[in-house]
Write a structure and sequence with these properties.
The chain is mainly α. The protein has 19 helices and two strands.
Length: 446
Amino acid sequence: MAMAVPKLRFAPPQILAIGYAAIVFIGTLLLMLPISSVSGRSLPAIDAFFTATSAVCVTGLVVVDTGTFFSTFGQMVILILIQVGGLGFMTMATLFALVFQRRISLRDRLLLQEAMNQGSVEGIVRLIRRVLYYSLAIEMVGALLFTFRLSFDMPIGRAFYFGVFHAVSFFNNAGFDIFGHFRSLTEYTTDPIMNFTSIMLIVLGGLGFIVLSDLADLRHKKKLSLHSKVVLSTTAFLLVLGAIVILLFEWNNPGTLGRLGWGGKFWGAMLQSTTPRTAGINSVDLTALHQATQFLLLILMFIGASPGSTGGGIKTTTFAVTIGAMITMMRGREDVVFFRYRLARERILKALTIILLSLALVIAVAMILSATEDHDFMVVLFETMSAFGTVGLSLGLTPELSTFGKILIALTMFAGRVGLLTLVYALKPKKNFEKYRYPEGKIIIG
């Protein structure tokens, strides 16, 4: 008599974590193929794994130069990994289901709810359709603008290829570039078209698809949701404040903005204030920045983009809720209020949990790397924060990492992309119902 094989049932967070890991594995195998490199030699497994993880996690940290090492095939593999990683593998799976007119089951909707960080499954498929439409439209406009500008520097066919690659990379906040020799946008520091297009793509990708959908409906609804108001106001505050501080710190620095005119200073400061939102491109030499500026970038990388976006970090809403809770406590009030709406206690506890888990991870990884890698601690911390925030900005440590360091940074990127709470939920045992509550106790704080 044959024994029945029990069906494996995974919770949505577990499926998301396994799905991203599977995509990384496939990408690793493809990047190891000789056809993926210009030289025809196979990329070592650890470097292929690191690159695939960086692409799927839309980070942009690289151990080999994307523009000169990889062939067109290898670059296209990276581009596909970026697109799938940025939009989410469940979003791409839903795309194929919609194309082939397959029914979206309740379980699929629950997975999409988890992937998009939504409170319910209501309207989730409609949101996914909009995600696909918005992404394609924004990337297309960005690609055309890049192509137009780059056509003055290279043949139109190559300009179009570069335009498409960088539009997809920047919108998905990946930070990969194929200009070669780790240059990123340093040759276009003062160029208005390249800077404006890059900033537009990064900001739109980092706002989150919920906010983009809300903005698209603004003409009919006449008002924005509380989530969109918090995201937009926090994003604008961080971008403007970051640019002002960078201008102040780097105004006379001959290695960065000091040698530029007014226009160059403006675009340089704006782009460097925008890219820590998990985009990972740079138009100035990051190693020449003052340490105060580098530390500012650390803070911006830690905050990152917004929920339901292509970016990482603790998210703008988490930062806003924590600041709101602090101000509320300082004023002696009980409720955290945004735009005349009171936040639930659960939201505040979740924000604090995310921040503490994230800080614990970054500190632990930085401490370990400071012991295994022979570099200044600021460089190690910068690289660790860049990996966690899936940013991709680097002070030059990544190509020199040891094998252990590459694995640790890759795992940090994975944790940053999937989300620490998602990983915790995926690894924790099944939740049990608490039958009783303990009496309230008092502890002196502060």
